[in-house]
Amino acid sequence: MKLYFSPNACSMVPHIVLEELALPFTLVPVNLKDKTYSGGDFRKINSKGQVPTLELDSGDVLTENSIILQYLAGLKPEAGLLATTGIERFHQLERLNFLTTDIHKNFTPLFNPSMPAEGTKIFKDILKTKFTWIDEQLKSSEYISGKTFGLADAYLFVMTSWASAKGVEISACERVLSHHEKMKQRPSVEKALKSEKEFKQKV
Ligand SMILES: N[C@@H](CCC(=O)N[C@@H](CS)C(=O)NCC(=O)O)C(=O)O
What we know:
- This protein is α+β, with helices and mostly antiparallel strands.
- It has 2 domains: 2-78 and 188-202, Glutaredoxin (3-Layer(aba) Sandwich), CATH 3.40.30; 82-186, Glutathione S-transferase Yfyf (Class Pi), Chain A, domain 2 (Up-down Bundle), CATH 1.20.1050.10.
- 52% of the residues lie in helices and 10% in strands.
- Strands 4-3-2-1-5-6 form a 6-stranded mixed β-sheet, with helices on one face.
- The relative contact order is 0.15.
- The site of glutathione has 10 residues, from loops.
């Protein structure tokens, strides 16, 4: 499999999951500004020009983070990154969906250099509310996916990294912050951070 990615982007989530599942994969960096990669025009791989994009050994190409994550979890269901049956599966997907939509997409304007300061404040305040909701959920479960590490935990790790990079005020979200510290200790997260940092240094 090939994971088309950009360092520190949301593609770090499937990167962590690939490491967690110990699946064989190659990382292919994409320049999101001009939509190019080592093979030329990235839009020929994913016409939306977005990462993550997963190219399977069959040549099939999957896009949309939550779909890629569910596909990967399904390759090794015994790893327990997503419940395979029952209502628990749907509760885990609820959390994942909240992270990929309500949280992720409210960060997008903060990456836009033409966003005026008033707009930035509005999105930061929205995000603070969303992280506070996540913090509340972590009162009753150690992981945002439930009793054990799951897909949503890898997603939350990347979103919390963005909160710190973009100055979203989440210092009161103590459980979110300790979740982040705990995630940093996972070998899969350590490996993904290290290799993305190496790619970033090369760019
Ligand atoms: N709907 C997509 C959104 C992915 C996304 O927003 N990716 C960002 C990087 S974090 C990206 O590729 N941005 C460049 C662009 O949208 O042109 C998904 O869930 O995978």
